[in-house]
C-alpha cells in the first residue's frame, strides 16, 4: 500500500518509523511518502493560510498550495488514483470497519489541516473526480490533523497482510466484524499466575476451551455494558443465547425473549 501525507509538519510522522508500522515500511508492505505543504508556496513567508471570508476567528488554509501539492502527488502516478482522506472533527466517524475498507485500497492520500481547516473549494475540486472522505477520529478538536493521521495509518497499516505476526489477532480485535459482534474485548492476562496478590482467573488456567470461550464472552459483555452501553443496542438478537440473556439481565440490560438463540 502507498500512503502519501501532505502537511506543514511532516516531522510529526516520525513515529511511523518505529514498531509494527516501521517494520512494515522496511519490508516494503507500506510505502509512506511525506510532503511539506510549504514547498508549494512562493512568498518570502511561505504562507499557507489567510483570514476567512465572512469573518470569524482563526485562519483558513489557502487553496493554491493545497491544489498544487495534490496535483503533483497525483502526477507521480497518472495511471492510478488515490483515495483522499481529510481528517476533520466534522467528518464521518473512523471505525474498525472503515479501517478495514481503507486497508483494501492500494493508495491513500491524507491531507491533515491546521487552523480552521482547508478552503472547502479544494475538496470540491478533487471530490468531483476522486473519492474524497472527510473522517473524524472522535468528538473533540485537535490543534491539527496530524495526530488523527497517525491514528488512522496505524489502524489501517496493522491490517495489511504480513504486518502482524499472528493474523488471527485482527479477527479478535474489538469492533472487528465477526469478532463477537460489536463487543469490546475483555481483560487479558499472562504469566505469572499471581502478581501482587492478584490472581489470574482460574478458568483461564483450566485448559477447558469451552469454558474459556464462555468466560471471555461474558467478560466482553460486562465490559461493553460498563464502558460502551450504547453498543449493546447493536447486538444481533439471534446471536444471543440463554446464558447471554441471563447475564445481560443480571447487569441491568434485559433483553426480550423473542428472537433468542437456544
From TrEMBL:
The lineage of its organism: Bacteria, Bacillati, Actinomycetota, Actinomycetes, Streptosporangiales. One of its GO terms (biological process) is tRNA N1-guanine methylation. S-adenosyl-L-methionine binds at residues 137-142. It is found in: Cytoplasm. It comes from Planobispora rosea. It holds the Pfam family tRNA_m1G_MT. This is tRNA (guanine-N(1)-)-methyltransferase. Belongs to the RNA methyltransferase TrmD family. InterPro entries: Alpha/beta_knot_MTases, tRNA_m1G_MeTrfase_C_sf, tRNA_m1G_MeTrfase_TrmD, tRNA_m1G_MTases_N, tRNA_MeTrfase_TRMD/TRM10. It catalyses: guanosine(37) in tRNA + S-adenosyl-L-methionine = N(1)-methylguanosine(37) in tRNA + S-adenosyl-L-homocysteine + H(+). Keywords: Cytoplasm, Methyltransferase, S-adenosyl-L-methionine, Transferase, tRNA processing. The keyword Glycoprotein does not apply. Its EC number is 2.1.1.228. GO terms for cellular component: cytosol. Homodimer. It is an enzyme of class 2 (transferase). Its main location: cytoplasm. Specifically methylates guanosine-37 in various tRNAs. Residues 1-232 form the tRNA methyltransferase TRMD/TRM10-type domain. One of its GO terms (molecular function) is tRNA (guanine(37)-N1)-methyltransferase activity. Gene3D superfamilies: 3.40.1280.10, tRNA(m1g37)methyltransferase, domain 2.
Amino acid at each position: 500500500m502507498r500512503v502519501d501525507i501532505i502537511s506543514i509538519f511532516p516531522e510529526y510522522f516520525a513515529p511511523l518509523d518505529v514498531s509494527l508500522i516501521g517494520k512494515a515500511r522496511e519490508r516494503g508492505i507500506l510505502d509512506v511518502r511525506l510532503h511539506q505543504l510549504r514547498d508549494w508556496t512562493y512568498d518570502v513567508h511561505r504562507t499557507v493560510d489567510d483570514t476567512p471570508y465572512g469573518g470569524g476567528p482563526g485562519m483558513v488554509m489557502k487553496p493554491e498550495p493545497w491544489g498544487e501539492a495534490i496535483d503533483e502527488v497525483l502526477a507521480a502516478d497518472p495511471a492510478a488514483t488515490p483515495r483522499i482522506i481529510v481528517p476533520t472533527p466534522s467528518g464521518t466517524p473512523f471505525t474498525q470497519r472503515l479501517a478495514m475498507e481503507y486497508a483494501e485500497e492500494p493508495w491513500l492520500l491524507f491531507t491533515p489541516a491546521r487552523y480552521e481547516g482547508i478552503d472547502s473549494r479544494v475538496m470540491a475540486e478533487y471530490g468531483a473526480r476522486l473519492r474524497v472522505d472527510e473522517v473524524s477520529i472522535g468528538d473533540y478538536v485537535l490543534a491539527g490533523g496530524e495526530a488523527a493521521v497517525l491514528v488512522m495509518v496505524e489502524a489501517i497499516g496493522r491490517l495489511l497482510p504480513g504486518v502482524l505476526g499472528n493474523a488471527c489477532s485482527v479477527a479478535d480485535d474489538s469492533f472487528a466484524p465477526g469478532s463477537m459482534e460489536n463487543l469490546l474485548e475483555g481483560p487479558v492476562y499472562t504469566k505469572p499466575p499471581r502478581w501482587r496478590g492478584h490472581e489470574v482467573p482460574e478458568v483461564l488456567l483450566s485448559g477447558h476451551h469451552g469454558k474459556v470461550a464462555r468466560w471471555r464472552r461474558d467478560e466482553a459483555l460486562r465490559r461493553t455494558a460498563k464502558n460502551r452501553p450504547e453498543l449493546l443496542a447493536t447486538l444481533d438478537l439471534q446471536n444471543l443465547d440463554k446464558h447471554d440473556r441471563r447475564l445481560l439481565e443480571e447487569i441491568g440490560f434485559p433483553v426480550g425473549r423473542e428472537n433468542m438463540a437456544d
